[in-house]
Every structure is written in structure tokens, then in C-alpha cells.
Amino acid sequence: MVGICSPFWTVPDRHRRTMQQPHQSIDFRSASIEGLVVRPIARFNDHRGWLVELFRHDELDSEHWPMMAYASETIPGAARGPHAHTRQSDYFAFLGPGEFRFYAWDSRPESPSYACRATIEAGQSNPCILIVPPGVVHAYRNVSAVPGLVFNAPNQLYAGPGRQEPVDEIRLEELPNSPYILD
Hints:
mainly beta, six-stranded mixed beta sheet
């Protein structure tokens, strides 16, 4: 989770993980990324408004079943990430309002799509779910003129049970000479 602050709890800085050494330079090329799931969201409208199904166990591999869920608002022009997780898969739903540019970079040397990057437009005009596997560096930016909402239902608890474990997050936002560039 990036930039979440709550009056009900805090995570001590000692639990946050950052990249300890400069990340090797990778020459990324645009291509699909192994394990990155992109699924359109069906919107059902009627006289009361609309409804979307965010997830169903019968349509989702058990390895991605959510352990928690949260929603965040991102102001116009702001970005969250880039970062990666070692064990966690993120299950993002971009519904609108707002338009986002989502970025993913495969820096997993063992992956068939190693050194590939993908950019996906998501949000009000293209509501979709993006499932990001562990090890894939990812970020998103609000590219609209209005604040945007994002839903996430990761398959791991943030900071573990009782918020007592290190956060499974490798932060790359301030990496010098970063290969993870957001347009």
C-alpha cells in the first residue's frame, strides 16, 4: 500500500522495505507480461445507477483470493509507485471516476517476459481489473482532471496479521537512474 494514512493505526518505519542497493539497469521493451491479468469489468446499469462485480471466487485462481481490500483516491497528476512485492499479488480494479495509466515492468530474471514492460489505460473509459503477480514492478498515475478511485484486494495482509510483520513492498520511487520511468 502506498501513501495510506489512518487515524486508527500506523505501521512503524522499521516495517517498510526499500531497495537496499541500486537496481541493475534493464533495457525494457514493450510487450505482454507473464502472469499480468487484464480483465474488463462489466457494468450493469439500470434506473438506480450501476453495479459491477469486483471479484468472484469461481472466476479467480485461488492464489489470488483476497485477504483484505481497500480503496484509494489519487489526485490528478499524482502517481503511486513504482514498487514491487516479493509474495503479494495486487488485485486492482479501476472503475472511475478518473482515468489512469498503469505501468508494469517484468524484472523477474526467471520469467519468460523478463525485461518486458506494459502500459495500460484504465478507469472511467476502460474499467478493468489488473492482477499483478509478485516480482512485477508496477505503478499508476491519474491522467485525468478529476480525482480517481482505485480498489485493491491483495492476496496478503498489509504488514501481516495484527500489522506485526515487515511490509512486503520494495519501494523504487526514488531509485537513482531508475529504469522504471512513468510517462
